[in-house]
Specification:
By secondary structure, the protein is of the alpha/beta class. The protein has a single domain, classed as Glycosidases (TIM Barrel, Alpha-Beta Barrel), CATH 3.20.20.80. The chain has 12 helices and 17 strands. A hairpin with a 2-residue loop joins β7 and β8. α11 packs parallel to α12.
Length: about 375
């Protein structure tokens, strides 16, 4: 079985009223990417899309272009981040448009990014879209929107919203079960009951249930989920030692200067070391590997960033080829890639001015190679 390559897909490239209020009029992920600056010699920032293609995801032509590019590269589908906060959802329009535009040839599923949106310099844990407190409004510090889960009535409402997507022939399924990823399963107090509820509703609507995948959680069986996803680079970064990058004397001098001045400095990891661990890791059949193209969160986090140094199409080809080969031999159905378009974290397959389509060509060559 050839593994199906899934690329995580960020819908944060169109205006919404909430982002206008929280971060300033017209804010999208592009604003973070455009304002990024190099933090040390050799730091590859800012990242610029090829042909200055700072697109708007509400344009059909954009999604048609993305789907064509992904298909050509051998990517099976997009795993679209889904933001559902109980009584409210955000960034839902691109997926809703994709459902409506059924002539766009791309498979897809959802990953519920179930965490609160916060300001990243605050004491709260969670997600945020920008790093500078100078750009924030003082009266909106801390939690911007809290993640809530509700009871069975809320779970039904959530399922019924998703049902038209599940029924779309392009929606990715395992057997007769629509695939649904949950980013932080342990945050859902009544997860088992919610899983039972959704499975019952799925059967009532002609499915055999929902195929639940939990991210980076080894207790997925106890939580009544169907599989685990090793989301990268987080999975490796938080579980492995000795993957920090050994850089040159300029980097060391800069670090020493920041320490002496009590200035925050980003945490630097080795891309090569991380990918070697990912490619060589043993997994069960119901544990889906992740991999990543690159990672650099400095556009969002500034000096608080996590940066993987040494990423290149050559290193990606070496280790992703091995991961693909092993996954194929083990009968692993999915490999999840970070990411299709996370420009604010330096994790994207879309063409840029540095490498063009080289990462996409790597995937195409690997998936079409005769073995």
């Amino acid at each position: 079985m050839k593994p199906k390559i899934m690329a995580f897909y960020l819908p944060q490239y169109h205006r919404i009223p909430e982002n206008d209020e929280w971060w300033g009029e017209g804010f999208t992920e592009w604003e973070s990417a455009k304002k990024s600056k190099p933090l040390f010699p050799g730091h590859n920032q800012p990242r610029v899309p090829a042909h200055n293609n700072y697109y708007n995801l509400l344009n059909k032509e954009t999604m048609e272009w993305q789907a064509k590019l992904a298909r050509r590269a051998g990517i099976y589908g997009f795993c679209i981040y889904h933001y559902w906060f109980g009584e409210k959802q955000l960034l839902e329009k691109p997926a809703e448009n994709l459902l409506k535009w059924n002539d766009i040839d791309i498979n897809y599923c959802f990953s519920w990014a179930n965490e609160s949106w916060i300001r990243s310099w605050s004491k709260f844990a969670g997600n945020a879209w920008i790093s500078s407190p100078k750009e924030a409004k003082q009266n909106t510090a801390g939690i911007l929107i809290e993640q809530k889960y509700g009871d069975e009535d809320e779970w039904k409402r959530h399922f019924l919203y998703l049902l038209p997507f599940f029924q779309d022939e392009r929606y990715i399924k395992k057997g007769n079960k629509p695939v649904f990823v949950i980013y932080i399963p342990s945050a859902i107090r009544n997860l088992k009951k919610m899983v039972d509820c959704w499975n019952r509703l799925a059967v009532e609507n002609g499915f055999d249930g929902v195929y639940f995948i939990g991210t980076n959680r080894g207790d997925w069986k106890r939580q009544k989920l169907d599989a685990e996803l090793q989301y990268e680079p987080n999975y490796t970064m938080f579980r492995e030692k000795n993957i920090h990058s050994a850089l040159g004397w300029q980097f060391k001098k800069l670090r020493e200067y920041c320490v002496s001045k009590n200035i925050l400095f980003p945490e630097i990891f080795s891309y090569k070391k991380a990918l070697a661990l990912i490619a060589g890791r043993k997994r069960g059949k119901d544990v889906f590997p992740g991999c990543f193209v690159d990672f650099d969160s400095s556009p969002r986090k500034g000096n608080r960033a996590i940066i993987f140094m040494g990423a290149s199409p050559q290193w990606f080809q070496k280790y992703f080829s091995e991961l693909y080969r092993v996954s194929r031999e083990r009968g692993t159905e999915f490999i999840f890639l970070t990411a299709w378009n996370e420009w604010g974290e330096g994790a994207y397959l879309e063409p840029d001015t540095e490498y063009g389509v080289k990462y996409l060509d790597v995937i195409r060559n690997i998936t079409t190679e005769k073995r």
